[in-house]
Amino acid sequence: MVSTLRGAVSPAELGTVLMHEHVFVLGTEFLANAPHYWDEGARVEDAVNKLRGLRSAGIDTIVDPTVLGLGRDLPRLLRVNEHVDINIVPATGVYTYNEVPPQFWFRGPGLMFDGPDPMTELFVRELTEGIADTGVRAAFLKCAIDSPGLTPGVERVMRAVGAAHRRTGAPITVHTNPHNGSGRTALRVLSEERVDLGKVVIGHSGDTTDLDYLTEIADAGCLLGMDRFGLDALLDFGSRVATVAELVRRGYAESVVLSHDASCFIDWFDEDELARAAPNWHYRHIDQEVLPALRERGVTREQLDTMLVDNPRRYFS
Question: What is the CATH code for 2-316?
Answer without folding.
Answer: 3.20.20.140
